[in-house]
Amino acid sequence: MQDQETITQCLLAWRQGDDRAREELFETAYDQMRQIARGILHGDRMRFSLQPTELVNECALRMFGLTDMDWRDRAHFIAMAATTMRRVLIDEARRKQAGKRDAEIVTLLTYHGQPAEQDLDLEALDEALNRLHEISEDFARVVELKYFGGLTNEEVAEVMGTSDSTVKRTWRAARAWLYAELDNTSQLPQQ
Fold it and tell me: Can you give the pLDDT at residue 113?
């Protein structure tokens, strides 16, 4: 609870121009960001070329380079970190594909490290999320926050300004759509 309040205070101070708050924010949020990165990379074949620390550092460089941000609280900040980590992973997957003709498909297991029937192709998921975004921004955002960010339903509801029950319904519908879109080859977490 203390870290959540500190993160929120640092975000507010940073938004008001305090550069020291940005440094304190990184120190305070670092462990949470590493936990997200470990969850994202768990079981992923790409882990041999990208470690959680590297993912967090790249994420921090991208996020802290932003000049126009309006983060409200810890949940909103973590949601942005999850989005940024997703973009870092997609960039890394594309870089690997461009570097080798016969590059391995980059895959990602479920956020919580639950065993899936098959690995999930990260690039296919990204393309599917982009299509889902065209259909419903809310559906895509819920998937991104829960799957990549590891946020709870309550945290997603807070970030999106909606109710917990709406997040649960949206998550079920978005998961079903993605399952069909990815040709039933993947297993998204049930939560």
Answer: 42
